[in-house]
Amino acid sequence: MRKIEYIVLHHSATDFQSNKDDIDGKVIGRTICDRAQEKWKKEFTDYKCDYHFIIGHTGEVFKAQPIEQPAWHCTNYQANLVSVGICFLGNFENIEMPTEQFNAGIKLIKTLMSEYNVPLANILRHRDVVSDITHTANSTECPGKNFPYIHMLDALRDGEPFFDIGEDYKCINEVKFLKQLSIIKGDGYGYLKPHEFITREEAMLIAYRILKLLQN
Ligand SMILES: [Zn+2]
What we know:
Strand order of the largest sheet: 3-2-4-1-5
Oligomer: single chain
Bound molecules: zinc ion
Number of strands: 5
């Protein structure tokens, strides 16, 4: 078995279904796999798909590329070798993710994290993967601006408020309390960065959220 260090999240940038009879997205998922097989058939005769899993809007999970084999899902050869690619059907540049699909994604990611010992910090969106060709972040928008990445990290974190602090952090209870009230939200990527300076803008936001809460 190859080593799996990362889980990379994608969207299909398509509709949920190929037509209205494609209830759970199986047909459109099949089309995505067929296209990948066509593209790679010369180099890899048994290639199945650019993703290991495809998740439809009803929460159905389709197995695609066998997990033992890498899939060419992000623009970084080394990252492809040590990652699992999950594709959420839909175009999250324009739409929001249905709850069923979100929950199925969390369940699958949790299973993969525990099976392959993948830390939460290594759950990445496609666009977070740095290209080994250009050495900059991928120019892709994948998985779209509405993709609920931060909510997914929250759901996967199991009560831990941020990546960079644990139960031994001296202000853990205060942090949990303030996060629950949405007074502090971290850096937007799941980190609190407790030793960095706060800007005037951040201080104003925190003051604003507290006053807003007191008003209600
Ligand atoms: Zn992608």
